[in-house]
């Protein structure tokens, strides 16, 4: 807990599920190359912008971002438009 930043998870190329709830993360840039990711639980952080972070994660089915600081819904909608397999948001 209290994780403020993650440089990269690129070495985990087959990462399927990630739970990083309840930390102090400010962005999700470290996930840009985790193409296999299907479930992401990133609630209760300090995330304010996801622009460019999720658009390549086309296998994402579950995305939980509750209780963050995302305020620009225009950017959020733009980012999520690529995630056609999302079942739980």
Secondary-structure blueprint:
Blueprint: E1 17-19, E2 39-41, E3 62-64, H1 73-80
Parallel strand pairs: 1-2, 2-3
Low-confidence stretches: none
Shape, per Cα inertia axes: globular
What is the end-to-end distance? 23 Å
Q: Write the H/E string, N to C.
A: EEEH
Strand content: 5-15%
Structural class, judged by helices and strands?
little secondary structure
Instruction: Classify the helix fraction into a percent range.
Output: under 10%
- Give me the side-by-side strand order of the main sheet: 1-2-3
Number of strands: 3
Averaging pLDDT over every residue, what do you get? 92
Brief overview:
The chain is low in regular secondary structure and 89 residues long.
What would you note in describing this structure?
This protein has 89 residues and is mostly loops. The protein is built from one helix and three strands; from the N terminus they run βββα. The chain has one helix at residues 73-80, and strands spanning 17-19, 39-41, 62-64. The protein has a three-stranded parallel sheet, with no helix packed on it. The chain is globular. The two termini are 23 Å apart.
């Amino acid at each position: 807990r209290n994780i403020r930043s993650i440089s990269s998870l690129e070495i985990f190329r087959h990462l399927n599920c990630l739970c990083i709830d309840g930390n102090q993360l400010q962005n999700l840039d470290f996930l840009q190359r985790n193409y296999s990711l299907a479930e992401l639980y990133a609630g209760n952080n300090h995330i304010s912008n996801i622009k460019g972070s999720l658009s390549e994660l086309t296998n994402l089915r579950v995305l939980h971002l509750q209780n963050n600081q995302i305020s620009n819904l225009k950017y959020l909608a733009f980012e999520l438009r690529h995630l056609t397999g999302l079942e739980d948001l």
